[in-house]
Amino acid sequence: MNSIHPTFPGTVLLPIDADLPVSSSTRQIISLSGRWQLTADKSTDTVSVQVPGVWQNQGLGMDFHGTATYTKKFPQPKIKNGSRAWLHFENIATYAEVKLNGDLIATHLGAWTPFECDITSSLKPDNILEVKVSELPNHFTFGFIHFVSAKFGGIWGDAWMELRPESFINDVYVTSNISSGTVRANLEIYNFPPVANDGAIEVRI
């Protein structure tokens, strides 16, 4: 490990598409990782950077701690009837404002937590995705041990689009009771539009 600049995540530690889920018959995954354009605030210079990857080792310098905007263009995916398009980011350090074709679609604070949003209504035949990222001196981005990871900024986790059904299970939380031999499952279900629907859930243990 370099004693002057501790290891930054995003290149060797997090290769492209390492965190992508697997497409299935009901969900299609479209990777947005790879090359993005990055422009620091109050600068007219744009550099091509790798996502995932922190900006300190991709053109902005090891001592850069500020605000910069990522830009990526992509075509509209083919969305089947009854499906919605979601945008997912695994990790951004530290505060992110996400715009799609000029529409503010999400904000997020936290370098270590993923976030996502429904982008269906903002999609066009040709799309411009902008992610304004702020990594400021008072933002906490250190790892669990300071010597393992230095303070860093940027889109350092994978990014992808996910085409999902209009209704799906978003999260499952399972608890067990050994004494009674029972299991309790709490399910978070996303439904668009938010109206009552008939359905069935099958659980196998």
Notes on the protein architecture:
- A hairpin with a 4-residue loop joins strand 13 (167-177) and strand 14.
- The chain has strands at residues 28-31, 34-40, 46-51, 67-75, 83-89, 92-93, 95-100, 103-109, 115-118, 126-134, 154-155, 159-165, 167-177, 182-191.
- Mean pLDDT is 84; it is low at 1-13.
- The relative contact order is 0.21.
- The strands form 4 sheets. A 6-stranded antiparallel β-sheet has the order 3-2-4-10-7-8, with no helix packed on it. The protein has a 4-stranded antiparallel β-sheet with strand order 1-12-5-9, with no helix packed on it.
- The protein is 0% helix and 44% strand.
- The radius of gyration is 19 Å and the shape is globular.
- It has no helices and 14 strands.
- With 205 residues, the protein is mainly β.
Comma- or semicolon-separated keywords:
205 residues; mainly beta; six-stranded antiparallel beta sheet; four-stranded antiparallel beta sheet; disordered N terminus
Low-confidence stretches: 1-13
Number of helices: 0
Strand order of the biggest β-sheet: 3-2-4-10-7-8
Relative strand content: 35-45%
Strand elements, count = 14
Roughly how many Å apart are the termini?
A: 45 Å
- Please summarize the sheet with the most strands: 6 strands, antiparallel
What general outline do the C-alpha atoms trace?
A: globular
Class of secondary structure makeup: mainly beta
Q: Rg to the nearest angstrom?
A: 19 Å
Q: Write down the secondary-structure element order.
A: EEEEEEEEEEEEEE
How helical, in percent, are the residues?
Answer: under 10%
Arithmetic mean pLDDT = 84
